[in-house]
Amino acid sequence: MMTPLETLVAAELSLPVDPRAAAMAEAIAALYPAAARAVLFYGSCLRTADLDGQMLDFYLIVSSYEEAYGKSWLASANRLIPPNVFPFEHGGLAAKYAVLSEADFLRLNGPDTVSVSVWARFAQPSRLVWCRDDAAREACVAAIARAAPTLLAAARPLGGDGVDPLDLWRKAFALTYSAELRAEQTTRATSVVDSDPERYLRFTAPALAMAERLPAVDGKRAERLWARRRRAGKMLSVIRLAKASGTFAGGIDYIAWKINRHAGTDIRIKPWQRRWPLLGALTLLPLLLRRGAIR
């Protein structure tokens, strides 16, 4: 029997999406016929329903990295520094998809990880747009139902008791944004909640009920944990950027596009940076930090 939170998650995952997004998810799964378990659609394109000219965001959940990649170095890279991220085009739309195993997806949605990247994203709305079978669906629901309790349990000691539920969510997302290298404006965490406040109000009570089952942390301990998450998260962002130079053709142009779109900058990539994308991306980093284009 599902918990109240799992029931909410399952209902949300089953909501319809633009048929073009569903077709793209099916095409992504078809690239991994033996390993694909589920494809999830999330992010700003889901919130706004604006797909044209945007970069859609998907997570591909696989049975294992060995089944997905064989003996390729990509299996080790995905295991050591999850996820791997790849570009994809289908039906006139552009996307990127991240790859995680079912085991890693469950683990990274929970509190026993220093990285916020998965549970911060899946505490937000997502859609299960392709699924292998009922067992894969149930595994996705169970994993995603860990995300919101993990988020609120981590943020609540710094948000204060009795705070307005929506302010607690805003505070929580602001903390996660500070724990990654982000190009978005500082108001982005607020806009995530304000785009669908009723959804977050529905999720508050069942998510907090599950959060109560997690180990309690006082304010000082929470501050130290968030400082650790910020240090580790920014370092992981740089490492993932380096790894993407081997998995994401044209990745440096995508990075520039996203920064310009979200931060209002005019970053232009030079020919030599395209020729050596890893070096080019790393040389951009100090400039972007000085300009405040990423935080």
Give the percentage of residues in beta strands.
5-15%
Instruction: Indicate the CATH class of the largest domain.
Output: Alpha Beta
Give the topology string: H per helix, E per strand.
Answer: HHEHEHHEEHHEHHHHHHHHH
CATH topological fold name of the largest domain? Beta Polymerase, domain 2
The assigned CATH architecture of the largest domain is 2-Layer Sandwich
Q: Explain this structure to me?
A:
The chain has 295 residues and is of the alpha+beta class. It folds into three domains: 4-147, Beta Polymerase, domain 2, CATH 3.30.460; 148-225, no CATH class; 233-291, no CATH class. The protein is built from 16 helices and five strands. Strand 3 and strand 4 (93-101) form a beta hairpin. The longest helix has 29 residues, at 219-247.
List the helices and strands and how they pair.
Blueprint: H1 4-13, H2 19-30, E1 36-42, H3 44-48, E2 55-62, H4 65-69, H5 73-80, E3 84-90, E4 93-101, H6 102-108, H7 117-122, E5 126-131, H8 134-144, H9 147-159, H10 165-178, H11 188-194, H12 197-211, H13 219-247, H14 251-263, H15 271-275, H16 277-291
Helix pairs in contact: 1-8, 6-8, 9-10, 9-12, 9-13, 10-11, 13-16
Sum this structure up briefly:
The protein is α+β, with helices and mostly antiparallel strands and 295 residues long. Helix content is 59%, strand content 13%.
Keywords:
single chain; 295 residues; alpha+beta; Beta Polymerase, domain 2; five-stranded mixed β-sheet; 16 helices; 13% strand
